[in-house]
Write a structure and sequence with these properties.
Blueprint: H1 4-29, E1 35-42, E2 52-57, E3 61-67, E4 77-83, H2 86-98, E5 117-124, E6 127-134, H3 139-148, E7 157-159, H4 174-177
Antiparallel strand pairs: 1-2, 1-5, 2-3, 3-4, 4-7, 5-6
Length: 181
């Protein structure tokens, strides 16, 4: 009888350990480790739209560029930096998965220069997914508006550091859309 107890415990361990490993894998599977960074930009437009660029990364760094010179009487172009918390980053990842970011329509389009354009670059593994669209109320548009509002969730500090962003829409769109091919 004394020899049966250790064999029973060993059998239970052989069953519990793989079950626990499967459970841990299933829980960690939802976390997207492919996306390392996103960059977002809004263009100027016919109305006084303020060109903005935002960068967030998996190390929780947050950078923001705002060009208020498109607002009458303001000449400020400012850069800010800060840190987001893990919940903001995780919420971003969930929102990107909900819009199926890997299968977005990324074909180059010509947009009229008098409406505001939005650009999103997702750095995923060794790939870059670049989406350029007009502001809209679509599912993708709502995610882009959420990204644009993330500055409210960050304690930003003005910085003199030059931001190096892959986005271009925070620049004057006439310089981008009317270039000869």
């Amino acid at each position: 009888m004394k020899h049966r107890a250790p064999i029973f415990i060993l059998k239970v361990q052989l069953l519990v350990v793989p079950l626990a490993m499967c459970l841990l894998y299933a829980c960690s599977k939802h976390e997207n480790k492919e996306i390392t960074k996103i960059e977002f930009a809004k263009s100027p437009c016919f109305l006084p739209c303020v060109p903005t660029a935002i960068s967030m990364d998996s190390a929780l760094n947050y950078q923001c560029y705002v060009d208020s010179s498109y607002v009458k009487g303001v000449t400020a172009k400012r850069s800010y930096s800060g840190r987001i918390n893990r919940s903001v980053w995780n919420e971003l990842l969930i929102k990107l998965e909900e819009i199926d970011y890997k299968h977005l329509d990324t074909a180059a389009k010509q947009f009229p220069s008098d409406v505001q354009h939005v650009e999103l670059i997702i750095y995923s593994g060794t790939h870059r997914i670049r989406l350029e669209t007009e502001s809209s109320d679509s599912k993708v548009g709502k995610v882009l508006k959420w990204i644009n509002s993330t500055y409210k969730k960050v304690q930003l500090k003005s910085t003199t550091n030059l931001l190096h962003l892959g986005t271009t829409l925070q620049l004057d769109p006439r310089l981008i859309y009317r270039l000869p091919k």
